[in-house]
């Protein structure tokens, strides 16, 4: 169908691609197309995922992203951790992806496939100052591996996130650090996996407009979902 409608060309990105064989992937490569890999949802639903072995061998640009929370990860960090464990336990003689490659699939490559490589996906002058600060991660299944920034990101759990900066503005992080960075600003306290964190949403509103709090938003969503017999999921997976 993609071929018949003329969609095999540069700029088109296939999400999932679980059913694609090597010949299909070769056509994608020949037409400079990209692939978004979502391993957790694929494995939970189908007990299989995209043929990323062939995709990598062919040189297809691949990004990594979660699918949706009912069968997938609740966020990018959880999907990165799942991909890292899948990569380590895969049946390849050597790991298919280097840890730095997995991080790039969630940052620089993802920005490139989205057409935003000149503003997102790396830390550089002129780019959006979107930054993530995490604690060094402990890897129970592979404790002998030396820690580096890529390893820390791939094995970070929600409670290990120290600070999130969006567009140069601290938006989420440890309560004490957020209070130090944003003195006098209206911070909201949230508890993530037993750890107290802080949110700041004040940057999204026009001057003079009071931002709606997260707790108000959470209450509104919970009320609406309750009418459907369902409840709002937690902000993070803690187990």
Descriptive account of the structure:
The protein is an alpha/beta fold. Helices cover 33% and strands 15% of the residues. The protein has helices at residues 22-30, 39-46, 52-58, 76-89, 99-106, 108-113, 149-154, 175-181, 214-226; strands spanning 13-15, 34-37, 61-64, 131-134, 161-166, 169-174, 188-192, 195-199. The strands form two sheets. A five-stranded antiparallel beta sheet has the order 4-5-6-8-7. Strands 1-2-3 form a three-stranded parallel beta sheet. Helix 4 (76-89) packs antiparallel against helix 5 (99-106). The protein is globular, with a radius of gyration of 20 Å.
Proportion of beta-strand residues: 15-25%
Biggest pleated-sheet summary: 5 strands, antiparallel
Which outline best applies?
globular
CATH architecture of the domain at 1-118: Alpha-Beta Barrel
Strand line-up across the major sheet: 4-5-6-8-7
The CATH superfamily of the domain at 1-118 is known as: Metal-dependent hydrolases
Helix content class? 25-40%
Roughly how many Å apart are the termini? 41 Å
CATH fold group of the domain at 1-118: TIM Barrel
One letter per element, helices H and strands E, the order comes to EHEHHEHHHEHEEHEEH
Question: How large is the radius of gyration?
Answer: 20 Å
- Tally of strands: 8
Structural class: alpha/beta
State the name of the first-level CATH class of the domain at 1-118. Alpha Beta
The DSSP helix count reads: 9
Catalogue the unreliable spans. none
Rounded mean pLDDT is 90
